[in-house]
Specification:
With about 90 residues, the protein is mainly α. The chain has 4 helices and no strands. The radius of gyration is 18 Å and the shape is extended.
């Protein structure tokens, strides 16, 4: 009987550590086949270490990931330029 479950995280480090210690075949009962694409095309935005630190601190204070915080900022900026609300901008994706 296995006592470990596949971690539900987006952390590359945590997943790498987990899969470095476990074999995929031990978790066949937790796997499911998907028909649609799993990965979305994403871009990267280079930040200085100082800016990255500030973003991480602000995100942590709000209880969200830095990715979510940046996505919110982008949606708000687009909304300000296009005179719509951020929720309307997000729905148009």
């Amino acid at each position: 009987m296995k006592d470990k479950k596949i971690p539900q995280t987006d952390s590359i480090e945590e997943l790498a550590q987990f899969w470095g210690l476990h074999d995929l075949t031990d978790f066949e009962d937790e796997l499911e086949e998907v028909d649609e694409p799993v990965f979305q095309h994403t871009g990267t935005i280079p930040l200085t270490p100082e800016d990255a630190s500030v973003v991480n601190t602000l995100a942590k204070a709000r209880g969200v990931s830095s990715r979510v915080l940046i996505q919110e900022w982008i949606a708000e900026s687009i909304a300000a330029v296009s005179f719509t609300t951020p929720k309307e901008v997000i729905k148009t994706k």
